[in-house]
Specification:
By secondary structure, the protein is an alpha/beta fold. Helices cover about 30% and strands about 25% of the residues. The chain contains 14 helices and 24 strands. It has helices at about 20-30, 50-60, 90-95, 105-110, 130-140, 170-180, 195-210, 240-255, 270-275, 315-325, 345-350, 380-390, 400-405, 410-415, and strands at about 5, 10-15, 40-45, 65, 75-80, 90, 115-120, 145, 150-155, 165, 185-190, 210-215, 220-225, 230-235, 255-260, 280-285, 285-290, 300-305, 330, 350-355, 360-365, 370-375, 395-400, 420-425. A hairpin with a 3-residue loop joins strand 16 and strand 17 (about 285-290). Helix 4 (about 105-110) runs parallel beside helix 6, helix 6 (about 170-180) packs parallel to helix 7 and helix 10 runs parallel beside helix 12. The radius of gyration is 21 Å and the shape is globular. Bound molecules: uridine-diphosphate-N-acetylglucosamine. Uridine-diphosphate-N-acetylglucosamine binds near residues 131, 133 and 312.
């Protein structure tokens, strides 16, 4: 299995291009199932998760083709045509690799009136049930049965528009409900909808495919069902988690970088927090400039929240930043119940962190020390990269496949910005 070696202690400088968002690309890919015409995604990142989703779509009979961009981080072109669908079963072997596979449920059900989807796997960051997805499909008139680890969903006469009222904000369940409702008969209202930019991106693409949607970006989305959708070309939104991760890389290492192809409004909750640590992030013509001088970051407290709050997907990375801060920081995780798995690894690098329930208390240390480490989830692994970039000595990161799920050309991008980082192939 590949590993990543980092020699820490170098400030970052130069440009880092930001790729299209993984969490936008995956639901957009699932949306191709809603039409027999071609959906073209540009600025599509080349990531393991995009590969898994392509494989799953091909197992249904979708024609897929991906052409990489000319340079790293330039974004590729992904063509998806769900013309000859031969199968509506999402197999356990494909779904277990990635939770976002569950997003095929809504589109398959809406267009074909049936779907059999394995219960998902994905990162081990908590129980992560799918009850809200199922509740949404039932509200839209589907019959749902659970059998041997599979969800059997059917709506023989098609789905019917309805009120989908979520008791809890869920990104994936909102996306599944939104896609399903585009082809339902009549009007649907999604109440307590998630407001993440990736949902707005999905809604815009669906609208370009002929869907009738209003209220995107608010907690109440209205959809007037249509008979059929058509193809379109859509540019995937920039990745706000990648943007925030590299901004935090500058915060922990010091330096002066420009993140290009992204925008400050995607990380609105992150910028004031970076400022509190002593890192300036400002909009430029090309994206965001991030700067911190040589002094240690200052401690800061944060709590994860659904968008527009501070994202849970940046919690681990921010913990690496404040691990070397002057003072004591508190980080509260409110979205997932088991998302501190990076803590024992940061401790091995010399951090001083105590976890009390849903809160980590971080007493900043003067410096971290390189060590062999590994994480069991994607964002946790990226926090170890940040810690390694700042640490004294050498860090070896194991289980790189987690990083490959969500960060395009990570070593290339960081090396070009002056970091000493390389992949050890095995
Ligand atoms: C998405 C993101 C993930 C991010 C998360 C929260 C993608 C592909 N993944 O995941 O990177 O960390 O949003 O911002 O976009 N829940 C239920 N029942 C359900 C569904 C969710 O109880 O049916 C709970 C979850 O366990 C969790 C909370 O709701 O505690 C939020 O999860 P959700 O927003 O659904 O996350 P995902 O869509 O899985």
């Amino acid at each position: 299995m590949d590993r990543i070696r980092i020699k820490g202690g170098k400030p970052l400088k130069g440009e880092i291009p930001i790729s299209g968002a993984k969490n936008a690309a995956l639901p957009l890919m699932a949306a191709c199932l809603l039409t027999d015409k071609k959906l073209t995604l540009i600025n599509a990142p080349w990531l393991a998760d995009v590969g898994f989703m392509s494989e799953l779509l091909r197992s249904f009979g979708v024609e897929t083709s991906y052409v990489r961009g000319p340079g790293f981080g330039e974004g590729g072109r992904l063509d998806l045509t769900a013309r000859n669908i031969v199968n509506t079963t999402a197999d356990y072997d494909l779904v277990r690799k990635m939770r976002a596979s569950f997003l095929v449920l809504g589109p398959l059900l809406a267009r074909f009136g049936q779907a059999k989807v394995s219960l998902p796997g994905g990162c081990a960051i908590g129980a992560r049930p799918v009850d809200l997805h199922l509740r949404a499909m039932q509200a839209l008139g589907a019959d749902i049965q659970l059998e041997e680890g599979y969800v059997l969903a059917s709506a023989k006469g098609g789905l019917t528009g309805a009120l989908v009222d979520f008791p809890l904000v869920s990104v994936g369940a909102t996306e599944n409900a939104l896609m399903a409702a585009t082809l339902a008969r009549g009007k649907s209202v999604i109440d307590n909808a998630a407001r993440e930019p990736e949902i707005v991106d999905l809604g815009r693409c669906l609208s370009a495919m002929g869907a009738r949607i209003s209220g995107l970006g608010t907690s109440c989305i209205e959809i007037e069902g249509v008979e059929a959708l058509h193809g379109t070309q859509h540019a995937v939104l920039p990745d706000r988690i990648e943007t925030g991760t590299y901004a935090m890389a500058a915060a922990i290492c010091g330096g002066d970088i420009e993140l290009t192809g992204t925008s400050a409004d995607l990380i609105g909750a992150v910028i004031p927090l970076l400022a509190a640590t002593g890192t300036a992030a400002v909009s430029t013509n090309l994206g965001i400039s991030v700067r911190r001088n040589g002094v240690r970051p200052t401690a800061a407290d944060v709590s994860t929240e659904p968008f527009p709050g501070f994202p849970t997907d940046l919690q681990a990375q921010f913990m690496a930043v404040v691990a070397t801060a002057e003072g004591r920081s508190h980080i509260k995780e409110t979205i997932f119940e088991n998302r501190f798995m990076h803590v024992p690894e940061l401790l091995r690098m010399g951090a001083d962190i105590q976890v009390q329930g849903d809160t980590a208390i971080i007493q900043g240390v003067e410096y971290l020390k390189g060590a062999p480490v590994m994480a069991t989830d994607l964002r946790g692994s990226s926090s170890l990269v940040l810690a390694g970039l700042a640490a004294e000595g050498e860090t070896i990161i194991n289980r790189v496949y987690h990083l490959d799920r969500g960060f395009e050309c990570l070593e290339e991008k960081l090396s070009a910005a002056g970091a000493e980082i390389e992949r050890l192939k095995e």
